[in-house]
Amino acid sequence: MSLSNSCPGARTIREPTPEYIDCPHCGREIEVWSDEPLTRCPHCRGLVLQSRGASCLDWCPHAAECVGLEKLQRLRRAGSDG
Predict the structure, then answer these.
(1) Rounded to an integer, what distance in angstroms lies between the CA atom of residue 56 and that of residue 65?
(2) What is residue 47's three-state secondary structure?
(3) How many CB atoms lie within 10 A of CB 30?
């Protein structure tokens, strides 16, 4: 079994799902995907940072192999901006 099929900790990164949150700028509901740390509100165009919290991507030595290096770097950059 490959690593990407066996690690449940990164499932929301490998298999993103939509989440609905209120924009902190205009208050309207927006769709944010679970692998999308930063998005722009389609209503007011404000930038919305979705808090991700700690995950296996922060400590696992196989994180780049599991979710892909580009996605891992994007998520880590977004996390350091907050």
Answers:
(1) 12
(2) strand
(3) 20
